[in-house]
Amino acid sequence: MTTTNASVRKAVIPVAGLGTRFLPATKAMPKEMLPVVDKPAIQYVVEEAVKVGLNDILMITGRNKRALEDHFDRVPALEATLEAKGDTAKLESIQAASNLGDIHYVRQGDPKGLGHAVLRARQHVGNEPFAVLLGDDLIDARDELLSTMIEVQAKTGGSVVALIEVEPSQISAYGCADIEEIDGEGYVRINKLVEKPDIEDAPSNLAVIGRYVLHPEVFNVLDKTEPGRGGEIQLTDALQELAAGQGDGHGVYGVVFRGRRYDTGDKLSYLKACVQLAIDSDDLGPGLRDWLPGFTAGLTK
Ligand code: UTP
């Protein structure tokens, strides 16, 4: 049995999925490299981790890791050109990505599911709690989530998932949580997790999103987790076992997030995310706001 008192220092970002919902764009690059306004989605996620002090980042990559590694690396020739031109803003924008934390990479091998990807982090993470961030879910930098989840992990000693309230008709697209309120606390206890339930079987309208703070006991459970839904080793199945079990490292808690979240996992939600984020940006927002109403009303092209 694993014990831990350490606070969270490491973030694991799985980026080895096949991204089939986004083909053909994701044929030769991971979906996490798709630009959202002017940065690849993955950069928002790494920035979120670094902002709460998770400077040690492990990406679980697949066959398309090259673009990711290049994005977070220096590009001396480009930097020299921008410097010679005196284009400080662009120079700083490209240097920002290469100055983010200490990024490590490990290959998943076969993409056998999110649970399998997380298990690949075992050696790097060791015996301490760690965060998992999925590149499909972007959390607005103006809102707090991960720091709250880290506090709840420290307080409870278990694992923590992030939840959002969705329309009942949407719940079958998510993992759904059967919860119990805990008096006086800003978090809930998870009794049970159900992966993508039909509306009538859903225990709540609380959906699991792509942020986790996990106790390392999850590795022992994942090691024994058989392939589940879709023939993949599901992180939800391992969390379900941690929620149901007793003892050190068991217990799963939920933080209900009511801030701004952008889903970039499929084509329509990705397009919405781009518009939502661009509308709030200082440079693109005014132009987009001017153009969009006329365009949607069919008045302008
Ligand atoms: P998804 O199921 O959303 O990703 O997994 P996917 O399989 O790439 O996408 P579709 O459904 O085919 O379009 C959630 C996260 O887990 C990672 C993905 O990269 C994504 O960030 N993942 C998934 C892995 O790293 N390895 C896997 O085997 C599966």
Give the class from helix and strand content and strand pairing: alpha/beta
What's the total count of β strands? 13
Give the CATH level 1 class of the largest domain: Alpha Beta
Bound molecules: uridine 5'-triphosphate
**How much helix is in the residues?**
25-40%
- Tell me the strand order in the biggest sheet: 8-11-9-10-12
The H-level CATH homologous superfamily of the largest domain, spelled out, is: Spore Coat Polysaccharide Biosynthesis Protein SpsA, Chain A
CATH topology of the largest domain: Spore Coat Polysaccharide Biosynthesis Protein SpsA, Chain A
Largest sheet: 5 strands, mixed, barrel
* Strand residue content: 15-25%
Identify the overall geometry: globular
Output the helix-strand order.
EEEHEHHHEHHEEHEEEEHHEEHH
The CA-CA distance between the termini, in Å, is: 62 Å
Please report the number of helical segments: 11
CA radius of gyration: 20 Å
Contiguous uncertain segments of 5+ residues:
1-5
Tell me the domain tally: 2
CATH level-two architecture of the largest domain: Alpha-Beta Complex
Q: What's the mean pLDDT score? A: 93
